[in-house]
Input
Amino acid sequence: MFNYHNYLPLHPVMIITLTTDLGTKDSTAALLGGMLTRWVPDSRAVSLSHHVLPHAWREAAYIWASSAHAFPAGTVHISTVAPFPLFMSSSPPGEKRKQTITSLPALPIIAATAYGQYFIAHDNGLLPAALGEDMADTARLLHRFTEKYSLEGWVGNISKIMRQIPAFFSEQTEAYSPLLLPLPAPQITPIGLVCHIRCIDRYHNIVINLTRQDFDSLIDSRQFSIRTFKGDSITTISTHYNDVPRGMPLCRFTAAGYLELAVNHGEATSYWGIDPNDKSSHDYHTIRISVLT
Output
């Protein structure tokens, strides 16, 4: 386990990580990194992911929670995911959205500190979801939009702050209360647990909202069973993907400590009947873990 607070900013170059839903098919994500490093002296951009599902702030939060420990103190993590209020919560599957993003003001840009690092995102629930109690009361307001949202304007406002970001978090800066949106928690039933999807990775593995600590506490060394859409069952925790035969399902804990459903050389989404590209269905789909007494 990393002791984040022992890390010191040893590098004169500011590391900036980028987490977006811009994709890499065109040059937009690269332009974002280029503008930031041009406008912020002595900085280097590192891409965490540009393939977050559109507006999926919970997925972006998981990416931060699972990767921040790998970076030194002084790193600045930036997310552009879900800049508009329309996408802070998903509509039920099949429901059409009546508003367009052009009719809505962009959400404020806020920042917080944790592990000796800095995290910048829109006030859409991402920061508390990613950092939890580690951010304490460090949240600060960076920018409130009064003009139309544009990538260039966004980068310009961020760059001004980043040139002096340590000083921005001095005691003289007023604290900000970020938006807190509820994250689904595992539900306890008479026969086991009902869990929700936290993230689907590019291999179509399914990360659910059950931590190792909660698993140990709620399952309590009892036998369990996770059934798939195809009728197979998982009854043990694996360490490696090849702990099971090729093409068979398994579950294991990720580096971030969440339970992941996978298939050795296959796609877990197919095994559980989930469309990996339908974000709205991810919020409503459940994974059931039966506990055998």
In short: The chain has two domains: 4-168, 187-292. Helices lie at 28-39, 57-67, 126-131, 151-162, 165-168, 212-219, 268-271, 279-284. Residues 41 and 163 are 8 Å apart (CA to CA). The longest strand covers residues 192-200.
